[in-house]
Specification:
- It is a single chain.
- The protein is α/β, with parallel strands linked by helices and 252 residues long.
- The chain is 32% helix and 31% strand.
- It has two domains: 1-71 and 149-217, Rossmann fold, CATH 3.40.50.300; 84-146, no CATH class.
- Helix 2 runs parallel beside helix 4 and helix 3 runs antiparallel to helix 4.
- The radius of gyration is 18 Å and the shape is globular.
- The chain starts with a strand and ends with a strand.
- The chain binds adenosine-5'-diphosphate (ADP) and magnesium ion (MG).
- The site of adenosine-5'-diphosphate (ADP) has 10 residues, from helix 1.
């Protein structure tokens, strides 16, 4: 089984250190992990470091896999689009990145499957430049999923989506993780989504890992007070599931 271990990851921009010493033991194939933390905490930097898009300290170990170029895929937060391409072409281009240009029928079938699952098949031949922010985000998700990576890093993949689409996308991601044995890390701001969809959670604050473990044990009243500076309660809903209820922002 494929596992991902992070060993003392750190990164700087110029001389400014923004991430240090992030270590995680053996995230397993099929698991979905939330990366949470305040704005500018270092979540995107951590993803870029894991994907080797920026240099820095530490080691990323992917064991049990023939770590080819498709092993780790990063879906960025800002989905800047190449406006000349159609939706379909852009997903096809993503599928072919790092491989031969010959297109197999199965790849086209797979593109159709993913576009349908994300309910953007009706947009397939529209230009990327003509899409709304949410539609572009779904295309970017399709581009990531078509590559079928061992590790999928998704940076706030639901930030531009309506509630229905958010739930649909998070369900599809966790099903895909289980089905394909993918290791998924998702940066999220909605902590109730973390509680509902992610078995593990890593908290990043000020460039360091403030907590990690199973989600329900990490998202606590104390963590919300100390890291997010909010007054909040973890209650249990009528189905027994934990939910975050926010009462207010704390001031120093
Ligand atoms: N390209 C960059 N050059 C310089 N500083 C950056 C760059 N990207 C991010 N930063 C800084 O690094 C810190 C962490 O940013 P980021 O990882 O994007 O945070 P998050 O994703 O948690 O909001 C912030 O202080 C941000 O301003
Ligand atoms: Mg970010």
């Amino acid at each position: 089984m494929v596992t991902l271990t992070l060993n003392g990851l750190g990164a700087s921009y110029g001389r400014v250190k923004v991430l240090s010493d992030v270590s995680i033991d053996e995230l397993k194939a099929g698991s979905v992990t939330a990366i949470i933390g305040p704005n500018a905490a270092g979540k995107s930097t951590l993803f870029k470091r894991i994907a080797s898009l920026i240099k820095g300290t530490g080691l990323v170990e992917l064991s049990g896999s023939d770590s080819g170029p498709r092993s780790i895929c990063y879906m960025p937060q800002d989905t800047g689009a190449n406006a000349v391409l159609s939706v379909y072409e852009s997903v096809l281009l993503s599928a072919k990145q790092g491989s031969s240009w010959r297109v197999a029928d199965e790849e086209l079938t797979e593109i159709d499957r993913i576009l349908k699952a994300l309910r953007i098949d009706d947009l397939a031949f529209r230009g990327l430049g003509e899409l709304s922010g949410g539609q572009r985000q779904l295309v970017s998700l399709a581009q990531a999923l078509i590559r079928n990576p061992k590790v999928l890093l998704m940076d706030e993949p639901t930030s531009a989506l309506d509630l229905h689409r958010q739930v649909e996308v998070l369900n599809f991601i966790s099903q895909t993780a289980k089905r394909d044995g993918m290791i998924v890390l998702i940066a999220l701001h909605d902590l109730n989504h973390a509680l509902h969809y992610c078995e593990n959670t890593i908290v990043i604050n000020g460039g360091v890992m403030a907590a990690s473990g199973d989600t329900a044990s990490v998202i606590t009243r104390e963590m919300l007070r100390d890291i997010y500076r909010i007054d909040a309660r973890i209650e249990h809903c009528s189905r027994g599931k934990p939910i975050v209820i926010v009462d207010g922002a704390l001031h120093d």
